[in-house]
Specification:
The chain contains 15 helices and twelve strands. It is an alpha+beta fold. The longest helix is centred in the middle third of the chain and has 21 residues. InterPro entries: DNA/RNA_pol_sf, DNA_pol_Y-fam_little_finger, DNA_polymerase-Y, DUF4113, Rev_trsase/Diguanyl_cyclase, UmuC.
């Protein structure tokens, strides 16, 4: 038996843990530069606020309906997610973290009432982390995901499903008749893996509910749609086609990019931004135990500013030896910017991508560096010639202990001089404190 545990309105819930004034009020979380809605509370949904809706379209609801908005605080959300996942992992032998707010649990070998275990899990996460969750149980991943949908809907929309299925729902214990009632009450588009286009095709073929889909001919589904959709059908019938992956494969590439809070025109500002992005990417690279064979650097103007001259720069620079050394990756990115930069443009976005990723202990020798400790040219250092792994470990340890950017590459402060507020930083005018990861932003309780 598998479980899908999902936090309810994760981003909004994290904000409410530390600020009770936000509870029971319409709340939205805004994207980078405070441009669009990326999360909504149930109260905000009731006002008609849509996901990804531009903020300027709903801003009037602040005055008319009391809508509250905060800037995305991903440092807080990521830390809260880690805490939640750690608690959930105590309840099952295996866990697959599916997203920042979802994880699959494998209860193979666990005896007892799984609904009671699910309720205990919910109460423990709520007590220790402060986040409300729903639990869906089923013999396959797709059925567990569907059960989670039922558990949420039964709580949020009374009457949509039987009330006793709210919060924790186990479809694996249902009789065939009860399961078919659930299937008949659920639109096929709610099934995990059935997107809008597939839903439209199924609707055109007369398949509108999950029950219609389960009763469809598997061979015909495979022929008219795809093998993937056929596997979804088999999963709903109870045949497991998707296994728990408690050791996800490492990323094949790592991308860090960002739109700027304002246009920037100087090479130094782009260098500072790209240096920070390369540092972030290098840290992620080391966390998954990989090295990169090349780094891509890109920056561009905004196509939405029709009156601006347009320029898009993009190039990939191979490394002589695959590396996870921040100094090397940042140095290569810096020189890439200086090679690609052209004056007279209003740049709006930049980023780096690490590609040709390999295991750090793969033992690949690469090209021999025979003549100097820094190979390539003075303008493009593609190899350090030294093993800096201990230095990188020390830097990662210090940043984990004392907070992000406690130790950073010097070029990441080229323009700002160490100030936390970068001239190019995305607008986060409504960001709440990073309560759990910054000493100076921790909440204070006065006696």
């Amino acid at each position: 038996m598998l479980a899908l545990v999902d936090a309810n309105n994760m981003y909004c819930a994290c904000e409410r843990v530390f600020d009770p004034r936000l509870r029971n009020r319409p709340l939205v979380v805004l994207s980078a530069n405070d441009g669009a809605v990326v999360a909504r509370s149930e109260e905000a949904k009731a006002l008609g606020v849509q996901m990804a809706q531009p903020w300027f379209q709903v801003r009037h609801l602040e005055k008319t309906k009391g809508l509250l908005a905060v800037s995305a605080n991903f440092e807080l959300y990521t830390d809260m997610s880690s805490r939640m996942m750690a608690v959930e992992a105590r309840f099952a032998p295996r866990q697959e973290i599916y997203s920042i707010d979802e994880s699959f649990l494998d209860f193979e070998g666990v005896r007892g009432d799984l609904v009671a275990i699910g309720q205990d899990l919910r109460e423990t996460v709520l007590r220790e982390v402060g986040l409300a969750t729903c639990v869906g149980l089923g013999p396959t991943k797709t059925l567990a995901k569907l059960a989670n949908h039922v558990a949420k809907s039964a709580e949020r929309k009374p009457g949509s499903y039987p009330a006793h299925l709210a919060r924790v729902c186990n479809v694996g214990e249902m009789s065939r008749g009860d399961l078919e009632l659930i299937f008949s009450a659920t639109e096929v588009g709610e099934v995990w893996g059935i997107g809008k286009r597939t839903t439209a095709k199924l609707n055109d073929a007369g398949v509108r509910t999950v029950l219609d889909f389960v009763r469809a001919d598997a061979a015909a589904i495979r022929k008219s749609l795809s093998v993937v959709v056929e596997k979804t059908l088999l999963e709903l019938r109870g045949t497991a086609c998707l296994s728990i992956d408690d050791s996800p494969a490492p990323n094949k590439q790592i991308l860090v990019s960002r739109s700027f809070g304002k246009s920037i025109t100087s090479a130094d500002e782009i260098v500072e931004a790209v240096s920070e992005f390369a540092s972030r990417a290098a840290e992620k690279l080391r966390n998954q135990g990989s090295v990169a064979g090349a780094i891509s650097v890109f920056f561009s103007t905004s196509p939405f500013r029709k009156n601006d001259r347009q320029h898009e720069a993009n190039a990939t620079f191979p490394l002589i030896r695959p590396s996870a050394d921040s100094t090397l990756l940042v140095g290569t990115a810096m020189e890439g910017v200086r090679r690609l930069y052209r004056s007279g443009f209003n740049y709006a976005k930049a980023g780096v991508m690490l590609v040709d990723l390999q295991e750090a202990d793969a033992g690949q020798q690469g090209e021999l560096d025979l003549f100097s400790s820094v190979s390539g040219t003075a303008e493009m250092p593609r190899s350090t010639g030294r093993d800096r792994s201990k230095l990188m470990d020390a830097m990662d340890t210090l940043n984990q202990r004392f907070g992000r950017d406690s130790v950073r590459i010097g070029s990441a402060t080229l323009v700002s001089g160490g100030s936390e507020t970068r001239s190019w930083a995305a607008k986060r005018e409504r960001r709440t404190p990073r309560y759990t990861t910054r000493w100076d932003e921790m909440p204070m309780v006065l006696a």
